[in-house]
Amino acid sequence: xxxxxxxxxxxxxxxxxxxxxxxxxxxxxxxxxxxxxxxxxxxxxxxxxxxxxxxxxxxxxxxxxxxxxxxxxxxxxxxxxxxxxxxxxxxxxxxxxxxxxxxxxxxxxxxxxxxxxxxxxxxxxxxxxxxxxxxxxxxxxxxxxxxxxxxxxxxxxxxxxxxxxxxxxxxxxxxxxxxx
Length: 180
Fold this sequence. Notes:
The protein has a four-stranded antiparallel β-sheet with strand order 3-4-6-5. A two-stranded antiparallel sheet has the order 1-2. The chain folds into two domains: about 1-90; about 95-180, Alpha-Beta Plaits (2-Layer Sandwich). It contains three helices and six strands; from the N terminus they run E-E-H-H-E-E-H-E-E. The protein is of the alpha+beta class.
């Protein structure tokens, strides 16, 4: 509402006169201010509730992450056990092979290197002469003596230092040969 101060009247006293603002406009302004205040309070409340929900969700996430890491650890242990089982079941025991070589090596043969790959061995060595090399080949090919040997192949041979024969045998072995 607006207030107008009028000039002094003849009696010498000032008269205060109120001027009325149209009621529809004042109602609209009061409603608008009230709506703004209610909206502001509502947004503050919504923000407070939203912050509480965010904190609650963060807490829930942090609580569920612990079991996930435990599940990951359990899976890791399971994978390690599976790997260990695989290694144990496929572990090769060279003791049979060394016993086999010790028992079946010809006296004039000297083995220098052994390379193992899957179910095959490559034996490198030297023989005193071709006769000793041939005898060694016959021993390896004999099925009664060389149980577990699938095939024998003389890969290479040649004359080496001091007249000795350098050679390479390839023995294909059964898997059982390495298992104790």
